[in-house]
Amino acid sequence: MAESKKSSGSAKSSAKPAAKKSTAGVGAIATASGSVMKLGALKPAKGSWTKRQRIGRGHGSGMVKTGGEGGKGQTVRSGGGKGPAFEGGQTPWARRLPHKRGYSQKARDIGHFRSRLAVVNLHQLAGWDVSIVVSPETLKLAGILSALLDGVKILGGAKSGKSLPSGLRFTDVLFSSSALEALKAAGAQIEGQ
């Protein structure tokens, strides 16, 4: 008995005509004239206007009791509310911080406290004129540096075939330990040391 009902149900479902698939795409409706009307292009009829909301006209209007104004006191005022830092009455996070003298720099962004140094490798000084003192300004004038940043540091990067001229003079620059050893071996003069 149940099998006959199932078979008749499947026969009915197979007898239904297949619905036509729209070729207009999602969010589009084909009109009677054949043109495609997109849902995103719908707009009110020309000359029409929205019916005004009538306050206090019963439950059917949806504007009962407070009439769209909220509650009394703080909630009815413009700009009223607790604000994003309010934590239900407990002491807010900003006031719970340990207000000691100074703060850990780890809690701050590194951009304000880290020194960014312009870097020069030793092989870049291979053709340097010995009569000119190596300083941040002369390095920028020579085109080795594009920006001085917070200072200049000489690193010990060397290339085969490029040797340092002897008797270089340095001022207002920092050195890595390997660069300092190589420069002292080459007879460089470093002001302030």
List the helices and strands and how they pair.
Elements: H1 2-15, E1 28-30, E2 36-38, H2 93-96, E3 118-121, H3 136-141, E4 152-155, E5 169-170, E6 174-175, H4 177-185, E7 189-190
Can you put this structure into words, describing what you see?
Helix 3 links the parallel strand 3 (118-121) and strand 4. 7% of the residues are buried. The longest helix has 14 residues, at 2-15. Helices cover 17% and strands 10% of the residues. The chain has helices spanning 2-15, 93-96, 136-141, 177-185; strands spanning 28-30, 36-38, 118-121, 152-155, 169-170, 174-175, 189-190. It is α/β, with parallel strands linked by helices and 193 residues long. The radius of gyration is 40 Å and the shape is elongated. The protein has a domain at 118-190: Ribosomal Protein L15, Chain: K, domain 2, CATH 3.100.10. The strands form three sheets. It has a three-stranded parallel sheet. Strands 1-2 form a two-stranded antiparallel ribbon. It is built from four helices and seven strands; from the N terminus they run H-E-E-H-E-H-E-E-E-H-E.
